[in-house]
Amino acid sequence: MSVLVLYTLPPDDVADDRVVDEFALHGAATAIGAAIPGTVVAGTRGSAAELIALLQYLRLRRSYANRPRLCSSGSECTSRER
Asked: How many contiguous H segments (helices) and E segments (strands) does the chain have?
């Protein structure tokens, strides 16, 4: 199972009566991610292009991690050879 916890990053500028820390969600998102093994936690500004790029990156990273590993003989390694 793959779990992705997305949270919005705080804005660069806030109104004079606000503080950036009001918008800081990193700690809460990280705590949620820590409770679920294998979770990826990522902050985002929320644009569609940014979300698509993140999902493509995670898909590539996952497929790379699951690739068969070849030994010097050119065949797939057994767990003992890794």
From this structure: 2, 2
